[in-house]
Automatic annotation (TrEMBL), chain B:
InterPro entries: 4Fe4S_Fe-S-bd (IPR017896), 4Fe4S_Fe_S_CS (IPR017900), Electron_Trans/Redox (IPR051684), NapH_MauN (IPR011886)
Keyword Transcription belongs to the record: no
Protein keywords: 4Fe-4S, Electron transport, Iron, Iron-sulfur, Membrane, Metal-binding, Repeat, Transmembrane, Transmembrane helix, Transport
4Fe-4S ferredoxin-type domain ranges (all copies): 291-319
UniProt entry tagged with the keyword Transmembrane: yes
Name this polypeptide is given: NapH/MauN family ferredoxin-type protein
Ranges annotated as spanning the membrane: 64-82, 117-135, 178-196, 208-230
Pfam families, alphabetized: Fer4, Fer4_5
Length: 255, 325
C-alpha cells in the first residue's frame, strides 16, 4: 500500500462517493426549495393583500385559515353560488372560500346557513343557526355622493343592467327559486333598493336628511342588526356601489 | 419481525439491504442454494432469453387502476356539476353519500394549526384511515390520487426522453420525505397555517377539476415539468407527505403484493417499472428472507410489477387468506 503516501494529495473521491455527495446536496436543495415554496404563501397573508368577505359563520380570519380544510363543500351547497374558492395568489388563502358580494351576495336563499352545516371542520362555526346570528361584516355607505336616495332620486330599470348574472330571492315570485336580478326591473320614486331587498329585518332603513317635509332626500342608515351579507352592495344601482360591506379585517383596521 | 421493521425503516428512508443469514428462513436458504446451481442458472438464462425474444405485455392492473382514478375523480366532478350529491367536496374532505371523509394528512394539519379537535373531522379521518388500511394505505396514491395519474403520464414522457439520452434521472435521498413531513406538520403547528396545502398538487388538481381551473395549476405543471426533465416521479418519491401518511396507515394492511422466490428469475422487470423500487430489492438474487413474502408498507399496490413480471412471481393477495382457504 504505497498509493498517495509520498505524494500528499486530497483524498480522491470515487465515482460512487461523488455521486452520493451530489445526491445529498441535491436532496438538501430540494428540501429547502419545497419548504421555501410553502412559505411563499405566507407573504400575501402577512401583508393582508386580500381583504375577503368570508361566508356566514366564518371564524376570525387567522383561525379561519387554520381550520379550513379547503374542500369546497360550502361552495357546493350554496343555492346562489355566492361562495368562491381563492386562488394561489392569496397565499395560505388558497382554496379558502370567500364571497364577492358585488358579483353575488349571500342573500340567504337557503333559509339559513347551509354552508355552515356543510363545513366539516367548524371553520364555518356551527355556533350559529339562523341568518340573524351571522356576523360576516358590516354595511357602510362608502360613497354617499353617488347614492340615489341621498340625491332624492328614484330608480327605473334593471338594478345592475341586463348582463348581470347575480341571483336574488324574490319571495313574491318564488320563495325557493332565486331569480336573476336582470329579470326583475324596478320602478321606484325614491331608490330604496338596499332597504327593500335586505334579507335581515331592521338591518337598514332610510332616514330623513333635513327637517323639511318636502325634501325627498334620504340617507341609508345601517343598524346593529346588519350581518354583512352584502345584498345591499350587490343590488345598489350606482357604479361603483354606494354601499359596501366592511369585512372583519377592515373593521379591525378602523377600530 | 426484524425483517418487517427493516421494511418499515425503508419507508422512512433507510437503504434496502440483503436479508442477513439470521433473518433468512431455512427454506429460503435452501431455495437460494438450489437456484445458484449451474443447471438452474442455465435454465433461468434460457427463460430470460425466451422472454426477451417474445415479450409479454400486460396492462391489466394499470388499466383497472386508471379506471379507478378516473372514476373516483369523475364522481367528485359529476356530483357538483350535475348536483347529484354522491361525493360532495374534494380530495381533502368530502361527504360520500352523506358520510364524512377526510384526508388524514390534511386533517392532521388542520388539527395542528387550529389546535382544536372537531368531531366531524375525526369521524371523517377514521373512516378514511380504516378504508385505506384495508386496501393497503398507499393504494390511495395509485388508485385515487389525481396527481398520480398526471405524474404517470409525465413519467412515461420522461422514460421516452431518457431512453434517447435527452434527459437523465436525478434521484434524491428518500429520507427527505420524512424530514419534510415533520417540517410541514411543525409549520402547521407553529405558524397556525396549513402550509403544505399551499403547495399540495393533489388539492390543487382536485379543486381545479371540480370547481374550475385556477392559476395555481401552473405550480402543478411546473412540478410535472421537473418530473419529465429532471427527476423521475420526484414528488411522489421524495416529497409528498400524504404518501407517507397513507404508508403508515397501511403498514400492516390486509391487501398485499406477494413475492414468490421460487418463480422469480431475478431479471428485474418489476424494479424497472416500480414507483418505489426499493421495496422490490427483495427480488434481487439472495435478498429475500423467505420463500414467499409481502412487499412492504411503502408499496402503493399499483400492480405495475404484477403486470410486468412474466413469471407471475408477484401477485395481489390478502394477508392470511391463503392460510384459511
Amino acid at each position: 500500500m504505497t498509493d498517495g503516501s509520498d505524494t500528499p494529495k486530497k483524498p480522491r473521491l470515487t465515482r460512487r462517493e461523488l455521486e452520493r455527495r451530489r445526491l445529498m446536496l441535491r436532496t438538501v436543495g430540494l428540501g429547502v426549495a419545497a419548504v421555501a415554496a410553502g412559505l411563499v404563501g405566507w407573504y400575501p397573508v402577512y401583508r393582508q393583500m386580500f381583504d375577503r368577505l368570508r361566508p356566514p359563520g366564518a371564524l376570525a380570519e387567522k383561525d379561519f385559515l387554520a381550520s379550513c380544510i379547503k374542500c369546497g363543500q360550502c361552495v357546493q351547497v350554496c343555492p346562489v353560488e355566492a361562495i368562491k374558492l381563492a386562488d394561489g395568489d392569496e397565499g395560505y388563502g388558497l382554496g379558502v372560500p370567500y364571497i364577492d358580494a358585488r358579483a353575488q351576495a349571500c342573500d340567504f336563499s337557503c333559509d339559513a346557513v347551509q354552508c355552515v352545516l356543510a363545513c366539516p371542520t367548524g371553520a364555518l362555526s356551527h355556533a350559529i343557526a339562523t341568518k340573524e346570528e351571522v356576523t360576516m361584516g358590516f354595511a357602510r355607505l362608502a360613497r354617499p355622493e353617488s347614492c340615489l336616495a341621498m340625491k332624492g332620486e328614484g330608480f327605473t330599470g334593471l338594478a345592475r343592467g341586463y348582463d348581470f348574472t347575480g341571483l336574488l330571492r324574490y319571495e313574491e315570485i318564488d320563495r325557493w327559486e332565486p331569480q336573476p336580478v336582470a329579470s326583475h326591473p324596478y320602478e321606484l320614486e325614491l331608490c330604496d333598493l338596499c332597504v327593500r331587498e335586505c334579507p335581515i329585518q331592521g338591518a337598514i332603513s332610510l332616514e330623513r336628511i333635513s327637517e323639511d317635509p318636502a325634501d325627498p332626500r334620504r340617507i341609508p342608515t345601517v343598524h346593529k342588526a346588519c350581518v354583512g351579507c352584502g345584498t345591499c352592495e350587490m343590488i345598489c344601482p350606482a357604479e361603483p356601489a354606494a354601499i359596501i360591506i366592511d369585512t372583519e379585517l377592515t373593521l379591525e383596521a378602523q377600530s | 419481525m426484524k425483517w418487517f421493521l427493516h421494511k418499515l425503516a425503508m419507508m422512512f428512508g433507510a437503504d434496502p439491504r440483503k436479508a442477513a443469514p439470521t433473518e433468512e428462513t431455512d427454506a429460503a436458504r435452501e431455495m437460494k442454494r438450489y437456484k445458484k446451481t449451474p443447471e438452474q442458472v442455465q435454465k433461468r438464462k434460457a427463460i430470460i432469453d425466451h422472454e426477451h425474444q417474445y415479450p409479454l405485455v400486460s396492462n391489466k392492473w394499470r388499466n383497472m387502476r386508471w379506471a379507478s382514478i378516473i372514476l373516483i375523480n369523475a364522481l367528485f366532478i359529476i356530483s357538483f356539476a350535475w348536483d347529484v350529491q354522491l361525493v360532495e367536496g374534494s380530495m381533502s374532505a368530502s361527504r360520500f353519500l352523506g358520510f364524512h371523509m377526510a384526508d388524514p394528512n390534511a386533517a392532521l394539519q388542520v388539527f395542528l394549526a387550529y389546535k382544536e379537535l372537531v368531531l366531524n373531522l375525526v369521524i371523517g379521518t377514521v373512516t378514511v384511515v380504516l378504508l385505506w388500511w384495508i386496501v393497503g394505505g398507499r393504494a390511495f396514491c395509485s388508485w385515487a390520487c389525481p396527481y398520480h395519474l398526471l405524474a404517470e403520464w409525465a413519467e412515461a414522457l420522461h422514460l421516452f426522453l431518457a431512453k434517447r439520452g435527452w434527459v437523465k434521472d436525478h434521484p434524491f435521498h428518500r429520507g427527505l420525505r420524512v424530514v419534510l413531513w415533520v417540517i410541514f406538520m411543525g409549520l402547521a403547528f407553529f405558524t397556525g397555517y396549513t402550509v403544505f396545502e399551499y403547495i399540495n398538487p393533489v388539492g390543487i388538481v382536485s379543486r381545479a377539476l371540480i370547481y374550475g381551473p385556477t392559476v395555481a395549476v401552473v405550480w402543478v405543471i411546473f412540478l410535472l415539468g421537473i418530473e419529465v426533465f429532471f427527476s423521475r416521479r420526484f414528488w411522489c418519491r421524495y416529497v409528498c407527505p400524504i404518501g407517507l401518511t397513507y404508508g403508515i396507515t397501511g403498514a400492516v394492511a390486509p391487501v398485499q403484493i406477494k413475492y414468490d422466490l421460487e418463480k422469480c428469475v431475478h431479471e428485474g422487470e418489476c424494479r424497472a417499472v416500480c414507483l418505489v423500487p426499493h421495496v422490490l430489492e427483495i427480488t434481487k438474487m439472495g435478498y429475500a428472507s423467505d420463500t414467499t413474502e409481502f412487499i412492504g408498507p411503502d408499496c402503493t399496490r399499483c400492480g405495475l410489477c404484477v403486470d410486468a413480471c412474466p413469471q407471475e412471481a408477484l401477485s395481489f393477495t390478502i394477508r392470511g387468506l391463503d392460510k384459511i382457504v
